[in-house]
Amino acid sequence: MSSFLNRLKNLKTGPNNSHNNESDTGSICSFDEEGFLCPVCHRKFVDTNGLEHHYLKAHSQEQTTTIYEDTNGIKNSSKHGQIDDPLQEAAIWKQQFCVSEENRMKLSSDLMQQRQRVSDLEEELDLLHKQLRTTQLKVIDQSKEIGNLKATKDVCDAQLAMFTDELLQTQDELKEKQNQVDTLCNDLIPRPTNDDVDVLKRELISVQQNMNEMSLEKEQKMEQLRIFLLEIYEYTKRFDQLENIFDQNIVNYDEIVNNHTSHIQNDITQLKQVIHLTREQKEKMVTTLKHMRNCLNK
């Protein structure tokens, strides 16, 4: 048993002493570092091609020699009949060691991918924050524009009320003049003399001129009021359109921000859980490897 363990130690430590001057790209590293490790000499390689080349070049001949020596040792010690069990146990330990190395490399690769994904999600979150700030600035600008339009609408409403009052006052004056004309006509009917007729004609002409002037003034004011009402209608229509666009933009931006934020938070939470589980598996794997190494050394 002791001679086999010595040969197993020589198999592990021998390549480290005999290949120190090789032009290989590998290097000795601990189990916690990332990369591909040689299961015999524990050299680290960047890719699997370098590991395969190193293993075929450095360890294929040594393993053949070691297997031959182990076979001779088994034949020479067959008298005792107790070497089969240690050989099987060592083979099991070696197989478990190789499987543990493969699992560690796979976990390391998965951890790197998860870290890259977390970085991408953080960049996407920063981009969404920038878009949110831009949207907030646009909302502030639109709010200012809507405030200005509301102020303009208030001024237009005040002017409309003033013009309406003036129109009502003019209509009242016109009605009063019409009543005066009717009164004068009734007063002149009982006195149909020439002088009275001439006076009445002059008064009627004067009243007719006044009525024409008032009608013309009324039409002008009505035209101004119509133009003003059209302007108010256009402003109101534009204000309603801007308000609808503003409300729609607010709803769309809120939906986009909420969807992306919830999606990113869920992804980050899942990635944190995966990274936590991966770290726990890695710690368990490292502990198992250390225990296996201690057992092999013993």
TrEMBL record:
For this UniProt record, the keywords arranged alphabetically read as follows: Coiled coil, Metal-binding, Zinc, Zinc-finger
Q: Report the PROSITE patterns cross-referenced here.
A: DED, ZINC_FINGER_C2H2_1, ZINC_FINGER_C2H2_2
Question: One MF term in GO for this entry?
Answer: zinc ion binding
Region feature Disordered, mapped onto this chain: 1-24
Which segments constitute the C2H2-type domain?
Answer: 36-64
Give a yes or no for keyword Iron in this entry.
no
Spell out the Polar residues composition-biased ranges.
13-24
Which stretches make up the DED domain? 162-247
One of the protein's GO biological processes: regulation of apoptotic process
InterPro entries, sorted? DED_dom, Znf_C2H2_type
Residues in a coiled coil are 104-224
Name under which the protein is recorded: C2H2-type domain-containing protein
UniProt lineage: Eukaryota, Metazoa, Spiralia, Gnathifera, Rotifera
